[in-house]
Amino acid sequence: MFGGLPELGISNGEDLKETLTNCTEPLKAIDQFQMENGILLPTLQSALPFLDLHGTPRLEFHQSVFDELREKLMERVAIIAEGKDEDRYRKLEELLEKSFPLVKMPSIQPVVMQVLKHLPKVPEKKLKMVMADKELYKMCAVEVKRQIWQDNQALFGDEVSPLLKQYIVEKEAALFSSDLSILHNFFSPSPKTRRQGEVVLKLTQMIGKNVKLYDMVLQFLRTLFLRTRNVHYCTLRAELLMSLHDLDISEICSVDPCHKFTWCLDACIREKFVDGKRARELQGFLDGVRKGQEQVLGDLSMILCDPFACNTLVLSIMRNLQELLSQDALPRDSPDLMLLLRMLSLGQGAWDMIDSQVFKEPRLELEVVTRFLPAMMSVVVDDHTFTVEQKLPSEEKSSLSYPTILPDTFLKYLQENRVACEMGLYYVLHIAKLRNKNALQRLLPALVETYNDMAFSDIFLHLLTGHLTLLSDEFGTEEFCSVVFDGFLLTSFSSKENVHRHTLRMLLHLHHKVLPSYMETLTKTLEPPKQCSEPVKELYTQLMEKLEAHKKSPPPTDETPSLDLGLHPVTVPTTTSTPTTPL
């Protein structure tokens, strides 16, 4: 416990033991030991007997003096370090030399740690000693650990790895959240709120102002993104940079070539829209990538691959298309739309670019603009025409039924082109948001075959299930259930467990709206096989419990219809209110 004292020429318990073993008069020896090792202050010697009279043990007195002096010394270390004295760090190094042998002594350790913390460059030898001792390493301030980490990528990786895992787990939990709503979904939290997450804050603190550590974290994120294709690593890439931006860490922000681009895009994500002014700013950054600096495109593509950025771009594209439609203008004539497509394309190509290390903007297939978008717009026109025709006298109607087939071009691009597919999926969400049952029934079956199975990705299914709450009353019809379940979800639930989970999530909220005979079939179909994961089994059990409870309490027949806005389920009073004022 008192190791290190003899090195400094200070007696310890072992010395006292030796003295007492070899002496003839123990009491004199104890007095002598106290004189030599007590507080060397002549005036104190005469005062100590007073303490004895008060029954205060010497240990208690020395301990309180020691604690007081330690606090003063630690304060002094901080004052020296923050001062302007040119040789302040030399003074601290001298103090470190004197105190380091006592670093394992619990009472002195805080002083040594304080000195280490305030030295911008701890001597290599001392860092190695700290690193070799697990206990010491654990006790170190993050300022000291940063100095250790910057030359030990593996050790830093061990520290960062659990945080990155935790981040992905949190994102996936949000996508499978039991909340099902159009108002509160995965994309609802603002960028600033997201940056207050535990992982982002911890990583920001671990990095401090250290560019080398920041680069290491980015390298980890790129590697993990390549290994897993998980787009949430792209979100963290952007959040981390913006978190350092919030703290004004110019040492890092000024050297990250993506800083201004990310900052501008962050403002768009906050508004969930890319306006004309910001679009031109973003275009300026993309056009400004000079020869020899193309590697920055890899990082920019990762920033654009972040689902929050992608969501903002596609929502902006949808708004642009609506405007073009109202102006009778063609997509190819809109520079704003072309830029949004260019950025969407760059983001969608992030993995290929980083994997191939060929840093070149992917070429946007022009036919996406000249053939796919017009085909998608023709679906809008069909819908509009049908609505108008319904208002005409029957002899003037050209067709009485709603169109069911989709243009071949639309289907082809949905299956073969990533950018087109992303827009097609968001168009389906747009239709659901408008509560347009006819158009939705026409489009959903087309999503069974999409590029890379994008329609069965967690993000899309999370959004779609939330949007379908707006059409909850339609689930009372065989036709609508058949399209949503048989025509889409059930086509892949047995091979894709995530589809199974999202289907059960939705039914937990809407089971009482689903046609009872259909619900019965669904419960049999969706029963989890033995080898499936716990979350699926858990959801299924919850669903069965809800159905059981629902059977026991049948709703009153005169129930007031509830207006389902995709909010949390609210019970509606069942008594019909009578007007209190005379009519």
UniProtKB/TrEMBL annotation:
Any one GO BP annotation for this protein: negative regulation of transcription elongation by RNA polymerase II
Composition bias, Low complexity: 569-583
GO terms for cellular component: NELF complex
Region (Disordered): 548-583
Name the record gives this protein: Negative elongation factor complex member B
Provenance organism: Anabas testudineus
The organism's taxonomic lineage, starting at the top: Eukaryota, Metazoa, Chordata, Craniata, Vertebrata
